[in-house]
Each structure stands twice: as structure tokens, then as C-alpha cells.
Amino acid sequence: MTDRTDPRFTVLDGRPGKIVAVHLSYASRADQRGRRPAAPSYFFKPSSSLAPSDAEIVRPAGTELLAFEGEIALIIGEPARWVTPDAAWSHVASLTAANDFGLYDLRANDKGSNVRSKGGDGYTPLGPGLIDARAVDPTALRLRAWVDGDLVQDDTTAGLIFPLAQIIADLSQHFTLETGDVILTGTPAGSSVVVPGQTVEVQVDAGAHSTGRLRTTVVQGSRSFDAGLGSLPAVDDTQRTEAWGSPEAAAAGALARTGDHPGTGHPDADRPVLAGSPVLAPHAARPSLTPELREKLSRVPVAALSGQLRKRGLNDVTIDGVRALTPGSRFVGTARTLRFLPHREDLFASRGGGQNAQKRAFDAVGEGEVIVIEARGETGSGTLGDILAVRAHARGAAAIVTDGGVRDAEAVAAVGIPVFTAGPHPAVLGRRHVPWETDVAVGCGGTTVEPGDILVGDGDGVIVVPPAIAEEVVDAALAQEEEDAWIAGQVASGHPLDGLFPMNTDWRARYESERNA
């Protein structure tokens, strides 16, 4: 297959010599990022990253932050070298819609080059149609993008920090822009993360002229990156904020990471994997906590669940060292995690203020979820206080579990949300902790808790129930509770324990007979 017939290059009528992309060019995007560059900066993308409209983009296994960026792509006609801004536009033959996809899981290791994060196969869809550059005003182009039919980006080139002519002229003073070269001119506010099953569309309009909608569908890949070959995907709250577009969007996006999307086949199909990554591996066929399952779990003591999990080889599933702030508290819910690191002054200065990880977790917790806080068993400061407890309660959270301290303990208890803690402490968070990240696997009270794990708490403590076996465990526990209640009745009637607890063959037969009567 020649380049002219390769579907990746159809809209360009051949493989471009180079693709140059602008890092940050729209005022709306710069304001969203909180930084405005004094001059444009660039990176290269390989021509092998090109894709036509209606193609699929594969999100590699073990990653979570695949973000789209609707952009206007310029295709060079006449070669340009040392051209002035006044003459620059005459060197553009045509323009089209582009989507500058990026994998933020790899971004930190690229140090701005974006070689791995934006160079993947299919990461630069172009098309479907071209607009003749001679027929349009470069200062009056409109760019729009949709995700699953919802408009998410809408801006014009009037909103550029650097006009298109300036970008062309600037590049031409560094190297020759050759015929067929592509310039990706940056994205406005609204770029965000997409997951398998979602479709992104991008369109450029210039008066009566239009490119039509460039359509790309995200699919889940099965191959992951090899730890022995190079850098592995790794994400933190900084990259999540950059990928989603803002701290608020990142917090809201955490809900989406544990929610269903068309084509994922599973709520956790959007969860990342890979050893060495601070994120977690998906469970195969991990079920959700249905209302029916929640109701059954609410009738089973934690001790009974512990016994059934032990029978299945799971002994390290209790969150040790925590107790209910209010006696009699009980809850059932799914984990929403928050991780603290040991206090360090410089780190707290950069990550402890503003809408930090702690506040994002409490703002994003959903109905029926449990905020689980990793505090390393450090009880020398509070990990939450009454305001955060009120926020979680208002959001419909099922409970809060922390292996650290609770500040304003009496006021927290009065809020009415179950709180399980290692104990009260009057000091503020910054005395012992740095709020670090959310929605990752954490260690709380000596056990690992993944986002989406089922937690049950009562007077005996808190236990983690793996969702994949929750139905089996609760049914067995309910059956055991029924059996134990019958045995207790026999003991109360004066029967000795020998042969009855546990039941021998004769007692088992009697129990089954009465149970089936």
C-alpha cells in the first residue's frame, strides 16, 4: 500500500513530512490551566499517529487518562522559510479538523516532548474534509467538539493568544515548513478525558465552509507496556487535573472512572493496571453493589462476614484499630479512597492548600460510598473535621473510615454520618499529613482497600468484602446466621454444646427437618 492509498493519509493525499503541534495557544485553555505563555512552544508528532475519520483509538491496558483535544489543523502549500506574519497565511493550502489525543499516564516522563504521550498510533485523527485556506479569514474560524453528542468545546480563532499567522511565521524562522506539513494549532478549554465506548467528534467551520465532523471512537486495548523496556504509565492528582482540565473536573471525573460507559462491559473496565503504577488493577467481572446486595449485607454482622471470608482464605480484610465514633453505628457502602503522606513542610505548602486531595475527595464522594482514608495509623492529628463530615453527609456518603484521628469529634458525631476512626485528636491535618491523592488503592488499618471495594461496619469493626465474591459471601453468612440462631435457641432450652455447636450428624438432621417443615 502506498502513502497515497493508505487510509491514514487520505485527507492529505500523502504522508506529511512532519506534524508540528502547539502546546498552549487559546486564552480559554490557558486560563483553565492557570498559566499563560509569553511565546508559543511546540512539539512534534509522528506521521504514523495519523488516522482518518470514523477510526478507533485504542487506550492501552493499564492506563486511565486518555484525553481528547479538538484542534484546527493547517496543511502547508507553498514551502515557508523566514516568512513574515503578513505573508504567512498565503503558505497555507487548506485546513481541517484534528483531534490531538494524549495519554496523560505517560506525560510526566515525557518532559514536554510528548513523544510517548501523544505519539501513539491513531492519536492524530484528521478530516473528514478540507477547507481551502484562500477562501477563509484565519481570525474567524470556529472550532467545536462533542463527546457522545454533547457539545464540550466551542471557541474561535479570535480567542487565540498567538494568531495563526504568528505561529506559521515563528516556525518558519526555525526550519522550513514543507508542502504537506501539518500544524496542529492548539485546543481551547473543554478538553478532557474519554473512556472506552465514548465517541469524540470535532468540526471546523468558516462561514459557509465546513470540514464536517471528524469522528473517533475509543476502544479498550488488551496490551500493556513492558516494565523491562521503558517508563511505565503513572498518574497522580496533578496529571489527573491536567487531563480532565481542572481540579473540579478531575474530582467529578473520578466518579466516571468507577461508573459504566457504553462499551466498557464493566464498571471497572475504566480502571488502570500495571505494576509500579499508583493505580489499581481491574477485577474480572467485578459486580456493583446493587440495592438487593446492599440490603442483604445490612442484615449480616461483620463477624459473620469475617467468618465466611476466612473460609475462603481471606484473613487480612479487617480494618484494624478503628472504632465507631458513635456507638451503634452501622454502614454498608463502596470505597472511595483518599491517601495522606507523612507531613513535610515543602510538600504541604504545595499540596496542602486550595482544593487539595482531601477536599476533592469529600466533594466527589457519591451516594452510598464510603470515604476510606489512609493515614498510616498516625493519630497525632485530625484527618477530617465537622465541615468535611457535613459535606460527606450532604453528598449522601454511607460512612467515613480513617485509621487516623478525627478533629471536632463531638461535632462530627452529631452530623449523623457513621465515622470509624482510630480516635479523636484536636490538631489540624498539617501537623502530621500531606493530602496526596484520591481514588487509588490505599492501606487503611493494615489492609488494602481498592476503590469500589465493599465495606461493612458495625460494633465489631470494619471489614472489606471483595465485590467479586460479595454475593456468595453474604448468602453463606445469612444461612450461617439462621443456623446459629437455631443453635442458640437449643442452648437456651438447656441442651449442652457438645455435638450441637458445631452440629454433629444427628443435630444436623434435626435442624434440616425443622427448617424444611
Automatic annotation (TrEMBL):
Its cofactor is Mg(2+). Keywords: Magnesium, Metal-binding. Substrate binds at residues 385-388, 407. Residues 254-275 are annotated as: Disordered. It holds the Pfam family RraA-like. GO terms for molecular function: catalytic activity; metal ion binding. Residues 18-219 form the Fumarylacetoacetase-like C-terminal domain. Mg(2+) binds at residue 408. The keyword Metal-binding applies. PANTHER family: ACYLPYRUVASE, FUMARYLACETOACETATE HYDROLASE FAMILY PROTEIN (AFU_ORTHOLOGUE AFUA_1G02370)-RELATED. This is 2-keto-4-pentenoate hydratase/2-oxohepta-3-ene-1,7-dioic acid hydratase in catechol pathway/regulator of RNase E activity RraA. It comes from Microbacterium proteolyticum.
